[in-house]
Amino acid sequence: MELTTFYAKIETINTTTYDTNTIRVTAEDKEGYTLRIHENEEVVAGAIYFFESEPVVFKEKEQLEVQNFTHIDQMDIPFKRRQELMETFYEYAPVDTEDIKTTIEEYLDSISNDTIKVLVDTMYQKFKQSFYLYPAATKFHHAYIGGLSYHTATMMKLTDGFLAVYPFLNKDLLIGGILLHDICKVEELSNYAGPEYTKEGRLIGHITMAVKELEVIAEQLGKRHTEELLLLQHMILSHHYYGNYGSPKKTNIPEALILHFIDNIDSKMTVLQETLDQTEEGEFTSPIPVLDREKYYKSKLK
């Protein structure tokens, strides 16, 4: 019998008194299906799988019985196709992921300092796949699939104006610090779909994780005692600026200060834009938590 193959996201999992359980899925064509799967197989609600199934009749109803299945994260799928699937099944960043990736990699390619380049690129390559899937947070800003890379790309674009006005800033440090500052959120959060903070995320956090990870990479590359490593680590450590927000150090180099400002600007302006998009012209928004619960007026000006 010919197998039916398709990608689908599991919506619910129901146990039965038989040797097969039922799972309700939404397929890529937005159709809903009920699948039967052996009771010993482990699947996760909310996750995307590639299913191979065959039609069966169970209690006089036509259903599909799963013969094989693979979690999307265990598959070697081209970048563009993976992003298409993510956009189909989840709330996604409101921009084209290919454009985000092109932007980020163009800025990384512009780094001329060899030590900064190899440190940053090695870290980027290690987390690359997850980096384009994870949100930047569980709530407040960029809290959707692809939010982390979208936030990073926007921050990189904002550097152009600062570098033009303040040419004493080191471009390589600034670009490197932006790429690294949140990259370990892929380990701080449990997954990219409906994430929670991991045990390590709660007890250590993405700032310390990134500093540790960069130290290991530097040791492996023979860059352990370089000025570049020290400065990049400082930028990661200080980008939240305040201790009660997770930074053990305040900014002590200009690039770290600009990184903090750019991070703050993009996170708050993104939330403000999203809130204004849901507000009628001539009206005020609801209180916005990340902006001290202030209400913002949406003007009628074009």
TrEMBL record:
Residues 150-266 form the HD domain. One of its GO terms (biological process) is rRNA 3'-end processing. It comes from the Bacteria. Keywords: Hydrolase. The keyword Hydrolase applies. The keyword Hydrolase applies. Transmembrane segments: none annotated. It holds the Pfam family HD. SUPFAM superfamilies: HD-domain/PDEase-like (SSF109604). This is HD domain-containing protein. It comes from Candidatus Xianfuyuplasma coldseepsis.
